[in-house]
Amino acid sequence: MAEGRTGDLVLSQGTYVLLQDGATGQVEVVTGPFKVSLADTDKPVVYEKDTRRFTPTTADKAISVCPAADEGQYLVLTNPSRDDNGMKHPGKGKQPTMDLTMGRKINIPGPTVFALFPGQVAEVVDGHQLKSNAYLLIRVYNEKEAKENLKNSVVKAAEGTEEKTSKKSVNLFEEKEIRTGNLLIIKGTDVSFYMPPTGIEVLEEDGKYARDAVTLERLEYCILLDQNGDKRYVKGPDVVFPKPTEVFIENKGQNVFRAIELNENMGIYIKVIADYTEGEGKDARSYVQGEELFITGKEQKIYFPRPEHAVVKYGSETIHYATAVPSGEGRYILDKITGEVKLVSGPMMLLPDPRKEVIVKRILNDKTISLWYPGNAEALAYNQSLRAKAGDSANEFVEDAPTRKSMRGADKTTLYSSSIAGYMDDEISRKSEYTKPRTIKLDTKYEGAVLLNIWPNYAVQVVNKTGDRKVVEGPKVIMLAYDETLEVLELSTGKPKTDHTLLKTSYLQTKNNVVSDIITVETKDLIKIDVRISYKVNFEGDAKKWFNVSDYVKLLTQHMRSLIRNVAKKTTVQDFNDRSTDIIRDIILGEASKESGKPRAGRSFSENGMKIYDVEVLDVEIGDEDIAGLLIDNQHDIVENNLKMIKLEKDFEYAKVAENITRQKLDEKSKTLTKQTEIDLLVEQNANQVATAKQENSKTLELSKLTADSAAQEVVDSIVGSKLARDKNAEDLRLAYETDRVELHIKAVEAEMAAITPGLIEALIVSNDVKFAEILAKNIKEQKGGAGLSEIFAGKSGGFEGLIETLKGSGLEDKLTKIHEQYKKFQDDKSKTE
Fold this sequence. Notes:
Shape: elongated
Distance between the termini: 162 Å
Number of strands: 52
């Protein structure tokens, strides 16, 4: 709380201050120009009009400016004084509190300025200037004072500047209209300037007093709503002033609407909410409340709403448009009276009568979309847009009423359409450029009935609302009727499989279905093992049974868990770890027949025709790490020993094979030798036979020859005898001749040798005439019995040795000896070469 201060307080002209006596609580007003001395108990205060309390403050903040109204303004004074009909105001200096009329208001035209008594509030308001399309909304808050002061109102006529007399002012309103609380309208077409008298106030809206009327052009209208609920429709061209109790209906900030353009493919659905008659004379037609109308462009090209009409809308759509149905396609039409759905085939422009017909589409919820069209984001988004359009996700059908753009470009989706800013209906404009013709894109992918494509090895069960069921196997395309849907399977998920989170699907995979699971078992020695397993499943037999079990995964996994756990409980951890695959396959598929070679029988389920035709054990994990480590170490030892045994066995097998091959080679060689011996014996035998035959033949021939020769031997003997005799005589003659020739030759040689002396031979050797020496030696040999040169050099027949012996002791001995040795060496080398 601000504290006052002592001292002098100087007020200028046009200001005042409120002072409160701290002893008595009395509040006084001091008006300038004036100087006042503040006592210790004086406190400057201000008046709070909202709380009606005097709040202490500082002296500077307590000084207020006197309210002043200039010409063309008026001042609204609240809580006026009782004296002078509220026109008494504080004078200069310090004055005590006056007796005020609390709660009363008076209007004081300007120019005026005055200070306020404690408890008074003043507001300066500009005089209200009105355009021809503006108006004021006034309220009578004091009927008596309004009638008394009506003559004091300032009114200027629209066609002139002269102030109205009180008589003219009274004529603005009727006597009965001036009553407390009544609202009145002052139109700008009647008054251009207005200041209200005491008892009447101008109501403010959004900080403004003058309000705009509505200006309508051709093909425009506005709607005014009265407090009693009545509506008033006004067509243009016109300037529309509302009644005091009326307000303009607005849509998206607009209160001017265009008339609705219709053609043969457009219509409006109307409900008659009040009886009325249209037309005159014989053309008059009466409409009764509750009657429904469907107005198309065939009956009325331009439609202006009436107060007796209420537009029936579905969603946000007001105008009903025809739907293009291409050739080969159709639409479903629902009869709203009988509930029958009929099919209309194209090509045509379909504009159903909304009073009894509607084009419907079937809305599929997200769950159904995910079941019927898994992974199809486009179908999901489309059906979500249908639900948004329907406004109720629980609806099964939605009206198919596509919006379109009008030729002018305005969006005609609601009755109260916003007008186009700056648009002129009477304007005619032509473009210098070619305007392309309007085109329409037809996308009928999601129009009409629901189509489903059933893939190969899949099946669905179609159910209608009467309970009829049928199973459809793929590959096949089916079309669902309005009351048909697909059976939903809810399958357990996760590993291990649980029903906490279910996978919902409408498609049953009938062939090559794979279901995986993790099973925790306990062995005979109380060791827990996690088995990761995969089943391969087919559905066989009667197709009607396939959908009898909603969660076939749960049926399969729980039953198999029970069987596997039962067998595992009777098996040690080592045995189960070593033979887990064989044990599980024998349990589930049955034991294989080794004798007949037939495959395992598999396991069938009578509940729904399901059959497990194969199973794979993907992993076996022992829960106890120590046991698992021991088994691994043991397994490593076993594997190591097995590898060693395998190596030894392989070496042994190799040796066996090598020795066997060696034996086979020897056997083959033995067989070859035996065969060769047989062949040689056969050849020898044949040769012997041939030789024997030849010998026998030779003997026979020889015997024949001997027999023949024996006959001719005598002749031969005589001939041979004669020949021998002749030969003997010839040989005797030759021998005698030779004897005589040799004797003559010897004699000649001896004579020649006698002529040779040792000195001659030495001289020949010294002269290296070896050849001559050889000839000499030959001659010496020949003279000594006819021996050859080799015999002479070899020392035979006297020869060369005899020659050397002859020359012994002479100078030719060494030379001749050397020649003799060289010759022998030459002969030796020659013999080796040969």
